[in-house]
Amino acid sequence: MSQRIEEYAVIGDLHTAAIVGADGSLDWLCLPDFDSPSCFAKLLGDESHGFWKLAPAGEAVASRRRYRDDSLVLETEFDTATGTVRITDCMPLHATHPYVVRLVEGISGTVDMRMDFTLRFGYGDDVPWLTSSEGLLRLTAGPDAVALWHTVAPVDEDFSTVAHFTVTQNQRYPFTLVWHPSHEEPPAPLDAYYAVRLTDAFWKDWSARCTYEGPWRDAVVRSLITLKSLIYEPTGGIVAAVTTSLPEALGGERNWDYRYCWLRDATLTLESLMRGGYFDEALAWRDWLLRAVAGDPSRLQIMYGPAGERRLTEWDATWLPGYEASRPVHIGNAASGQFQLDVYGEVISALYASAHAQGVQSKAVWELQCALMEFLETRWTQPDDGIWEVRGPRRHFTHSKVMAWVAVDRAIKTLENWPDLSGPLTKWRALRDQIFTEVCEKGYNEKVHAFTQYYGSDQLDASVLMIPLVGFLPASDPRVVSTVEAIQRELLVDGFVLRYQTADDGAVDGLSGREGAFLACSFWLVDCLHMIGRTHDAEELFERLLAVRNDLGLLSEEYDALDGRLVGNFPQAFSHVSLVNSAYRLTGFDPLAVDPDMVGTEAPSVDDTNLALPTVPTAPPSASRTSRARKPRHPRSSR
Q1: Quick one: fold of 5-205?
Q2: CB 380 within 8 A of CB 409
Q3: How far apart, in whole angstroms, are the C-alpha atoms of residue 513 and residue 254?
Q4: 349 near 407, Cβ under 8 Å?
């Protein structure tokens, strides 16, 4: 069986990432990219679907693990009756191919070690052809090949590879795994010790630029590192999570593929990174957005592939039993075809925030915003699928309408602050007032004293906690206060916030079964409590949320308070984004905060250096990283 989700760690190289268990087993890795088919899939199955374990051959009496300070280099130590051994795991950055480096070091005494290596391409379904020579295993299936460079004596056992070796104090055994196209020769091995040092130095240098200086700095930095690890560096796209189909409730059907770039999640990730002082990532995401959404605004998708791919067809890997028997295991995501009104607000708001923070507005970006606004003017009155991607009927979701208001409001503010730009300011102001009036009349239910899930409903939805956070209404408004109190009464489980009340018959969202408390919503409650003056309660809840992180500071999508464990895809951008935002708000300093009264004031001139959509360079085939059944993507950087 796989381990509990909180027993896992993540390592990555800004192209893809691996999930490593506390027992020394690498149980999930997609190569060469985040959304490529996996070559280790034990996380969603069993050992026959691929894993790579390095651990003492006998029983360990104790173990511990940590990330090296402010880095994504993982160290796991095992104490045995005869000695202590350390395994250091990382994925070096800016290499020509994707590498995983694992370094076994003797700390004290003598430890007998065992390596179990079972690689299966195609999400655990394709058994590779294996050839072996001194110091090298080569595994090939179709277009994919993996080379494992080593210094041990492996043997074959039931289509897998096993090695026994003994490590003594100060002795090192390096292992280097590298993916490459099967028609090419395997790349040379890396110097494992040097690769670890370089990887550690990169992450520490990046982390040192964080601007947060509050009481929760360690948690904020770890979350920002995690968010950075979810960036697909060649394009600037930001994936929502490393995994697919980790269940929102154990044994249930709410299992989705999160290895794609949601506009909503990426936008909020962008804002968190900017709060932390990371503007290069903001510019890269902006350029990714321009390329991804270029074309007809009416065909804007809620998510794209890491390079901007639009076709994310959903299918089921029927041979995988799922994490703790949670089926189906989805590959791809049919929600990519949904209409979600709120993403227009999130995208336009993020573009405005980045321009405001940098003091420069790009005409190319403004042209995109105007195109989105033109579409929004006629479509905001239509029902949509909502922020939670329900697979039930479309409705007039309150949160969606609020975010439509945000889109118009931020477009207006852009015009007010950059007079060199042009747009129908009078018309947009009237539209903003129209949306505001409708939401207040139809979204607020006097009987339940709260803004509800959709117009005419008496059901609560945690998404309306965003109302004061986006500036739709001030936190002091009685309707906001009563909504926060209603959510506390109706949507809390052991103090954590559910998105909404599910129903076994699927009447609410088209799905059966329950789900865990949504961690992002719980952080939104922290923000709202703080804004309405209940700061002590906000800090108390924030500390409880920090306590459900695993020992490495990582969060998944949800927390199952009934079972007392993390659930959902991992690590989850939405959760870490919300942690960062709450920490900044509680500290009393938000570098992205915009003065709502700043209207018509003098603003920096428009940046005319970016008047066209950025182009994606085409790399020669020999330099490209390819993914299965897909056109080549960007070459890896050689920086």
Answers
A1: Beta-galactosidase; Chain A, domain 5 (2.70.98)
A2: no
A3: 8
A4: yes
